[in-house]
Amino acid sequence: MTWLSLAIGLIIALPVIAYVARPLFTPARLLYATDDSRLGDLLARKDTVLSNIKEIEFDHQTGKLNTEDYAQYNQRLRGQALSLLKRIDQIAPGAGDLDTQLEAAIAARRKVAAAPVSDAAAATAASVTEIAGTDDATTKQATEAGGAKEVVMQRSASFCHHCGAPVEPGDRFCRACGTRLREE
Amino acid sequence: MTEMTRLDEQPAVSHAPAEDVLTPEKAAHQRRMAMWRLIIVGVLLAFVAFLVLGLQRQNVSQQRASGMAPDFEFTTFDGEAISLADLAGQGVVLNFWASWCDPCRAEADLLEQTWRREQNNGITFIGLDYLDQEHAALKYMAEYDITYPNGADIQSQAARSYGIKGVPETFFISPDGKIQSQVIGPIVSQADLDRRLDEIRP
Amino acid sequence: MIFHIGSLLLVIALVVSFFGTVVGYWGGRTRSANLAASSFHAVYAVAGLVLAAAVILWYGLLADQFQLAYVWNHSERALPLFYKFSALWGGQAGSLLFWTLLLSGYSVAVALTFRTRQAALMPFVNATLLITSFFFLVLLVFSVHPFEQYEFRPADGQGLNPLLQNYWMVIHPIMLYMGWVGLTVPFAFAVASLLSKKLGNNWVRIVRRWTLIPWMFLSAGIIMGSQWAYMELGWGGYWAWDPVENASFLPWLTATAFLHSIIIQERRGMLKVWNMVLVWLTYVLVILGTFTTRSGILESVHSFAQSDVGPYFLGFLILIIFSFIWLLFDRMPLLRSESAMDSVLSREAAFLANNWLFTGIAFAVLWGTFFPMFSEIITGQRISVAAPWFNKVTGPLFLLLFVMMGIGPLLGWRRTSANKLREQFTWPLLLSLLFALVYWLLVSKQFYPMMGLTACLFVTATIVQEFLRGVLARRAATGENPFTATWQLMRRNGQRYGGYIVHLGIVLIGAAVIGNQFYVQTTNVTLAQGESADLAGYRFTYNGLSAEHQDNRVEYRAYVSIFADDGARLLRTVSPQRNVYDKNPDMPTSEVGIYVLPSEDLYVVLNGWSENSATFSIFVNPLTLWLWVGGVLIVLGTLIALWPHPRRKTVPAPAGVPVRA
């Protein structure tokens, strides 16, 4: 190995080292201001629940789930979706914008939920999940809003964790399904 | 938060660390878990230990190439059977070559002339023809008038046990069967060859 | 001198990758954006350096720089340019460099994709990818030396291993390496989520996709490897349960199991620990496979030359096995299941059964692969486990797996009621029973092929039914025509329907394997010019031999005409050939002559020849075509599953629309 190649090696090494080490000499920053994993996780969960709704609906359409099972699971999942949305909205109000539509959609859906699920209703559900398809946009928006973590209790309304029906403040049991409500 | 992390209405599982209250069932559960962990780690350790042993075995056969000269047998192009064991007590120069190998030509004459000079001094030259065809090899030998014992390295057995990097490659084996030195590539200097020969004289 | 610089580049990359590893882990822990940024820079820098080193080695190969030991050993002047290029992965040192290059490629892709989106995980991901790079760079710098030079410059090189001079052999390793190397990515995310304790659904969604990509490459690589063995080795087979083949198959098995069980975690929050174990196992098996093929610890027809990489690999294996196990044990309380199994008749349960089967097969293959080593250590005798053992042990497991592949998709999530079960299974079951009966009466009474083919048909029937029901449901909802409905179904439900297409590919492969396992007809004949041999209703006539010198080899080509109907109709003249390479005359390679029919391959191997006669092995291999078609379907299905969802526009919420009950 000649001195020349060592010298050339050094000439290559120096800029590489400078490039790799440079960020260490800039003013110290934190990777993320607060622990926003809750939001990311909630969003991921929301997506999961929504795709679960889509999945069981599809299973029902293709004849894998009978109507009673479907209605039961559907109601449960929608309840979950709704309360997840609420949580997301509390953590990052900005992220709620897109989802308010969805929330409204699901809430509208809720009103007729007591009646047996018909195919027409299923079709509505399909369009609901179509809206939910804007996952990425929501996520991005939410991540941007993620800095503003403080909980803003702008909505007084809350919902049953089991069936998703609205509950009044002070209620200890759900008026729709009778489940004991959790303290939040 | 806790209730939100569950997607389902199954009995709530507390996410708090397990050691808050130590009921008998919990203790038993912990013991079971610890036992399973021990078993898993044990199995993995055993597997790794086997790999270590297997590798060691592998190395034993490999390292022969750098310590004791592995024994080999071959039949010369003249039909004489020779094995390294027969040559104990003599210095052996073992040269791997091939007729298609150009660098081999650079050393062919030097080896042959040195062999003629040294053959009565207790030194034997052996040529092993590596991955070659016999008629081409014989032509090559005739071209350089090679007279020391030469033969084909059938199925590259010797080449493999010596772990040669290619041809030409030459091993200098002392009378007690140790590899004294090794040259990868052609030997071009008489002085170098003589120095290596001096190390393996009986 | 340029080659000195090549090795210096690797040394610099080694240092940078180590630095990046430390900075990554540390930055992730302390949440320092500066350290994290530095780890990103390290990823990019390592990739650049390794790429430069690879380019230098390519230059050495293409410019015939035979003073480089690697070039001298794996190339020659007369080698076609294409193979000079591919000689980069033809030998030990070069292929390790190539491996490192691909790993850096993946690392950069991951870094660019997730830099902002997964800020919390990425420092750990970078560090885990970099520590793998670091390990391979250690091998390159301290053990295998791709840039080792001789004092003199030989006039010509040794030539590339003749077996590798085949276009399949050029693509096959790339695919395989893309698969193997890519499986580092899910492992890196698993480690990152464990270290950061962010174990929500987030990493699951990323990892699914990033496992699917390498999985596709690995599948394609394995299929191409079989294609190569089939076309090139000339023993009529495509799979021999050789240690090297097993080394590629093992991670495929665990990765496939993972791809299934991760769906349950995504949907139901179950099997979290198990998924971690599968990701880890897959990665360990990749490293273990590389270790076994390169250290010479197991004998194989296609191992690399022996070298001293063994101890390094062992060290790294110990590190990844035990550090991960320790980490997993430590984070166990965070990995509780979120729900329990509702019913045995649910898709979750089917997935779980599938996982047990995959793991069982993987364990059997692992055991068989390492048995020679175990037996040598314990009894002193090396007892090899041959193909029949593997077939006998894994055959029934694969059969069960196929049955599960039919059942699973028909079950709903959570619970399937009895009447729905009947609805779903009536047709496929009836069809299968009918088929089995006909087969038993008319074709053959052998148990395994009958069961196997019946299972194949059953799975196909369920998949067809799934597509039909899906299309019908979609049509009912949207009123689209059948083609649009099918298309939309696959586009919107890519995961599910792409998966079905992959299953269909697997079924085709299964059918081909059964055909080749049980119904091959073969004969060895020596034919004088003009003579014929009969096999399976075909007549093979030997017409003569030609010899022709190509770049670096002599090609001996025999001409064999194949007739059907007892010699009445000429189908095709095939020309099986042998290539004798100038530099490696004792390793002649074979190019088989094949006439492919949908029902069977007519496969002729030239074994030897004399003045006016030649010896052939003739095979009639049933259904072999479908093996390759199946491979194509697997890739196609995976691409459908991977395809990004169509961007759906935000339609006005139907909140105001009155919904009638």
Description:
The complex is a heterotrimer of chains A (184), B (202) and C (661). With 184 residues, chain A is mainly α. Chain A is built from 6 helices and 2 strands. Chain A is elongated, with a radius of gyration of 24 Å. Mean pLDDT of chain A is 64; it is low at 109-157. By secondary structure, chain B is α/β, with parallel strands linked by helices. Chain B has 2 domains: 1-66; 69-199, Glutaredoxin, CATH 3.40.30.10. In chain B, a hairpin with a 5-residue loop joins β6 and β7 (179-184). Chain B is elongated. Chain B starts with 23 loop residues before the first helix and ends with a helix. Chain C is α+β, with helices and mostly antiparallel strands. Chain C has a domain at 521-625: Tick-borne Encephalitis virus Glycoprotein, domain 1 (Sandwich). In chain C, 63% of the residues lie in helices and 11% in strands. Chain C is built from 19 helices and 10 strands. Chain C has helices at 2-30, 33-62, 69-74, 81-86, 92-114, 122-144, 167-182, 184-196, 201-233, 243-268, 272-295, 310-331, 347-379, 387-407, 418-443, 447-478, 482-492, 494-518, 625-642, and strands at residues 521-528, 532-535, 538-550, 553-564, 569-574, 577-581, 589-591, 593-596, 600-609, 613-622. In chain C, strands 2, 3, 4, 5, 6 and 7 form a 6-stranded antiparallel β-sheet that branches. A 4-stranded antiparallel β-sheet of chain C has the order 1-10-9-8. The N and C termini of chain C lie far apart (82 Å). The model of chain C is unreliable at 300-305 and 648-661 (pLDDT under 50). Chains in contact: A-B, A-C, B-C.
